[in-house]
Predict the 3D structure of the following.
Amino acid sequence: MNALPQPLYDDLTAALAAAGRRDLVRRLEAHRPRETLTSGQAAALLGVSSANTVKNWLEAGHFPGAFKTAGGHWRFYRDEVEAVQSRIDELRDKNRRGDLTPPDASDEDGPPPPLL
């Protein structure tokens, strides 16, 4: 299945939504292939210097959808990497505010933020 380029996909879903066909927009979204990243691309997006850091977080369970290619290279779903990045940003903001409240369960779910 060939994926539509993002700008075309955005135009198509906007046109369908404008035509009142949100049902088709939902069907398209349900079958949209998820974008994958290499470990190096994931590291760059996360702002860490080493792909090994990403692989360590993979081993800790932070990228449940990650998979190996036939050649043995890891691929990570962009949405999972972005969710981890969001969690890192939240924890970094909490640290900057000096928020010393005990962590809730969600604070313990994310990987540790990179050293600043």
